[in-house]
UniProtKB/TrEMBL annotation:
It holds the Pfam family Cupin_2. Residues 10-64 form the HTH cro/C1-type domain. This is Cupin domain-containing protein. GO terms for molecular function: DNA binding; DNA-binding transcription factor activity. PROSITE patterns: HTH_CROC1 (PS50943). GO terms for cellular component: cytosol. SMART domains: HTH_XRE. Keywords: DNA-binding. The keyword DNA-binding applies. Residues 15-41 are annotated as: Disordered. The keyword DNA-binding applies.
Length: 192
């Protein structure tokens, strides 16, 4: 895969939105320095941090990573047709530990429903800054183990276990095991 310059892409989108780094930081609720560090590639954002920043730009991760993805009215999808929302975040890493791969089925915004195939390598973590967004989400662990924290509740889910919650509650996903974890999830309205 060709390297994807996350910092350059963020700077291009921020400038196209006619926003300063400070304005984007305020709109997304992140420190100003974090925007600068990401744009200069001195820091790689977590999935949660990048999603907050993109929220300030009012764009999805799909729009960020695959801006030229054609709109499709497809009903059925092969694995290679899923929209890759995260792999480019890790395109320069040699070691897959800690990597999260999120693949989206079709155009989530067109259906007001986001279906994801999620892969969490050992050590993967959505980030210490808990996710919060106006949605509802649920999922089923297909393989491995994932620690899911929702508000004050925390549980390690294994293959066959599932979750369902109001996404406005702070939440986090971590693979604390020693093998890949796979989750299939849904979120409405779409968040990523």
């Amino acid at each position: 895969m060709q390297d994807f310059n996350v910092g350059e892409r963020l700077r291009e989108m921020r400038q196209a939105a006619d926003m300063s780094q400070r304005q984007l930081a305020e709109a997304s609720g992140v420190p100003h320095g974090q925007i600068s560090m990401i744009e200069t590639n001195r820091s790689s954002p977590s999935v949660a941090s990048l999603r907050k920043i993109l929220g300030g730009l009012k764009v999805s991760m799909s729009e960020f990573f695959e801006p030229d993805a054609p709109l499709s009215q497809a009903v059925f999808f092969k694995p290679h047709e899923l929209r890759d929302l995260t792999t480019r975040l890790y395109s320069t890493l040699d070691d897959p530990r800690g990597k999260i791969t999120l693949q989206q089925v079709g155009d989530a915004r067109a259906h007001n429903l986001q279906l994801l195939h999620e892969r969490y390598e050992p050590g993967a973590d959505t980030g210490e800054a808990m996710l919060e967004h106006a949605s509802h989400e649920g999922g089923i662990v297909i393989a491995g183990e994932v620690e899911v924290t929702v508000g004050e509740a925390c549980m390690v889910l294994k293959a066959g276990d599932s979750y369902l919650f109001d996404s406005s509650q702070p939440h986090r996903f971590r693979n604390i095991g020693d093998r890949e974890a796979i989750v299939v999830s849904a979120c409405t309205p779409p968040y990523l």
